[in-house]
Amino acid sequence: MDKEYIATPSKTIEIINKYNFAFQKKFGQNFLIDTHVLDKIIAAANITKEDTILEIGPGIGSMTQYLCEKAGQVISIEIDKMLIPILEDNLKDYDNFTLINADFLKLDINKLIEEHNCKNLKVVANLPYYITTPIIMSLFENNIPLDSITVMVQKEVALRMQASPSTKDYGALSLAIQYYSTTEIVANVPPNCFMPRPNVGSAVIKLSLRPDSPYEVKDSKFMFKLVRAAFNQRRKTLVNSLVNSPNLDITKDDVLNALENMNLSPTIRGEALSLEQFCELSNLL
Ligand code: SAM
What is the Cα–Cα distance from 225 to 167, expressed in whole angstroms? Predict the structure, then answer.
């Protein structure tokens, strides 16, 4: 890009001062000020002019500028109305950019996709960390027709997404992410790549959506109810967690029979079960 980058410390300070912008901690505002990190994100997302990019939280447009250069269409959703005139000004040269002032979690994304005739949809974003899980789960659960999600998240969350059974990071999030996608950590990003600096490390993770579930599941909603119940009381045995869950109506004998069928111990904890085993348990129950 021959343009002046927004994602540098000096340009970011210039923009902040020009508009007298005050960072809002409640919106998770940590803007990227490192073009090398942006290059890595853009390369991993594999963006072409055929693609529509959905960006959640454009900030002052540091990543948006890169996305507009590479993609056919960019739709960015920003909650903070103070950022809207700044974004409109910073990105005025791009006619493939659409800005929506809204809370992403309250938007009907399927309707938006239809209205904007989105093709080859990819999510690329530096997410607001306080709502990382709800954003990703809403993309999965609303069956948004996505190719991939390449996002900056808290390092610890990226590790939880990739975790294997019986590790401390393994939980309901790991199982959901691995059910819907395959994962790849693209970069580790230290706090000094942001303004202001967050007090946690960050990582860029790419989630490539699976065309089909990796294992056969008769009722995936029920399977995820089992998963949530198992990890709600993670130190208890799986049998006790499931039988005591107010969201499930299953007996101790049901669970014990299913575990026997699967050659698993009656005292096993939920955290020891793999995604495949949760799928099998769900089908049996
Ligand atoms: N993309 C910019 C960058 O990389 O510099 C900003 C990233 S900053 C970590 C997160 C952005 O998400 C902020 O601009 C914040 O205002 C916005 N945001 C927070 N909550 C949001 C929500 N519910 N819906 C849409 N945007 C939100």
Answer: 21
Instruction: Give the length of the chain.
Output: 285
DSSP of 142-175 = TT---SEEEEEEEHHHHHHHHPPTTSTT-SHHHH
pLDDT tens-digit readout, 113-148:
999 999 899 999 999 999 999 999 999 989 899 999
171 C-beta closer than 6 A to ligand 1: no
Cβ of 61 closer than 6 Å to ligand 1, yes or no, is no
What's the gap in Å between 216 CA and the centre of ligand 1? Answer: 36
pTM for the predicted model, two decimal places = 0.95
Please give the distance, rounded to the nearest whole angstrom, from the Cα atom of residue 38 to the centre of ligand 1.
16
- Choose which residue among 27, 35, 62, 68 to substitute to test ligand 1 binding: the one with the highest number of ligand atoms within 8 A of its C-beta: 27
φ/ψ bin of 112: left (φ > 0), alpha (ψ from -120 to 50), beta (otherwise) = alpha
pLDDT tens for residues 164-201?
Answer: 999 999 999 999 999 999 999 999 999 999 999 999 99
Neighbours of 36 (CB within 10 A): 11
- CA gap 87, 170 in Å, rounded: 38
